[in-house]
Amino acid sequence: MGKISSMKLKGSQNLRLRLLLSTLSSTPILIEDIRADATWPGLRPHEVSFLRLLEKISDDCVVEINETGTKLKYKPGNVMGGKHVVHDCGVSRSIGYFLEPLIVLGLFGKKPLSIRLRGITNDSKDPSVDTFRSTTLPILKRFGVNPEGLELKIESRGVAPGGGGEVVLSVPILQDSLRAVTWIDEGMVKRIRGVTFSTRVSVQFENTMIHAARGIFNRLLPDVHIFTDHKAGPLAGKSPGYGISLVAETTSGCFISADNAVCYAQGEEEAEIEDEEKKDLIPPEDIGKQMAGILLGEIEQGGVVDSTHQGLLFLLCALCPQDVSKVRVGKLSPYGIGVLRHIRDFLGVKFVIKPDPLTETVILKCVGCGLKNLSRKVS
Amino acid sequence: VGRTASRQNTNLMQLVYGKSATMATASVHGSVDEESDDDDDDEFFKPKGEENKKSREGFDVGDADVEDCSKFTIPSGKNWKDEEMIENIRDRFVTGDWSKAARRGQVSE
């Protein structure tokens, strides 16, 4: 292949995004100083797991990690996709961590992707699998992704520390490219939906969460339905936990989400756990109220997506054909800003970012980089 | 023309893309080329500190290992039981004042 010059980066920040953009733009990357000064230096188990997953679904990609895991060389290959792929996500981060890059990567594959992911379905760090179903997938559809073949099935649930959940993600391939959007009408909230779950605890926890959340919404909107999903036996995974995922749907087809889950601490930073072990778990009533409040906070922001989905929104805009996309968000989230910077570095797409003082929102405009699904054409 | 447009929204553009970004009105930034110009054969033997001057004005060094999390929760100590808070967002719901919501949409083209 001769010499391909690679982009040099530092640190563990935005690793998934960097690998994703590297793959989509066929730019090899070299990341140095990955947690070089940390007590436990180098890549974390979930990061290595994600690299293995990339190897699984693409052809010809090369991953090199140095002995301490502080240096990573990645040469992207072609995304192949394929059916009946299985991947164990481990228990250091939840399945949501893997789903976020996968749903974009899958679109640019040679064959539709259908993958079974095992691990943690709900936690407080990453968007839960319920939020993916209710909010993330509709955002993709907005950009012209074929709704047929785009789905996420939750087969069993699992929370930290044991995991044991299982989901099946299907992503269709793009026949050509995405469709640019003008998406600045955030609409008015017409209904609120949601789902609670409980694993290895009483279903009563769910009723309490729902009751608390409803209590806050009732003064604003009658159309509120929150479903329960109580799992038992092997479908409940290996650890006890409960949580709630809420979504507000607006008259203009926007989905605004908030979710959280409660369980015993995840076993990553062993040193810290001893201190935190005594920390009380948040009671279901508080979780219900808290999430209802956060959802209202997101609605107040007035964006077409919530803070969590800003990154995905910007990424999809940048991957569009060379048309203008225009979107409205609330306050820019730190992750969203990181995504904007990486998009500039990898795809050469720069957004025009204008505040809209009257509504206290932000309007972003960009011309897509015109990425086509090249893998599809390669024979 | 490009200059005036960019001056208007200096703040956010600067916040995101850093200071130098306001000068470059073109949509394509040079950083991609700058970085890939380096020969990658000897990238494992770079003297330390050389790559410190990366085009990442907005970040401090301490941020390089910031956790990779898209989930962002708006910090709010708001009490949604409060009548006033509820009234503030009432018009964001279909049960609120539709004409106000419509005006919201119009002001921004």
From TrEMBL, chain A:
Superkingdom classification of source: Eukaryota
GO terms for biological process, alphabetical: ribosome biogenesis
Pfam families found in the cross-reference section: RTC, RTC_insert
Keywords annotated in UniProt: Nucleus, Ribosome biogenesis
InterPro entries assigned to the protein according to its UniProt record, in alphabetical order: RNA3'-term_phos_cycl_insert, RNA3'_phos_cyclase_dom, RNA3'_phos_cyclase_dom_sf, RNA3'_term_phos_cyc, RNA3'_term_phos_cyc_type_2, RNA3'_term_phos_cycl-like_CS, RNA3'P_cycl/enolpyr_Trfase_a/b, RPTC_insert
Primary residence: nucleus
Gene3D superfamilies on file: RNA 3'-terminal phosphate cyclase domain, RNA 3'-terminal phosphate cyclase, insert domain
Keyword Nucleus listed: yes
Domain RNA 3'-terminal phosphate cyclase: 8-353
Cellular component per GO, a single term: nucleolus
Places the protein is found: Nucleus, Nucleolus
Domain spans labelled RNA 3'-terminal phosphate cyclase insert: 185-300
NCBIfam families in the record: 18S_RNA_Rcl1p
Family (UniProt): Belongs to the RNA 3'-terminal cyclase family. Type 2 subfamily.
Full protein name: RNA 3'-terminal phosphate cyclase-like protein
Organism this protein belongs to: Cinchona calisaya
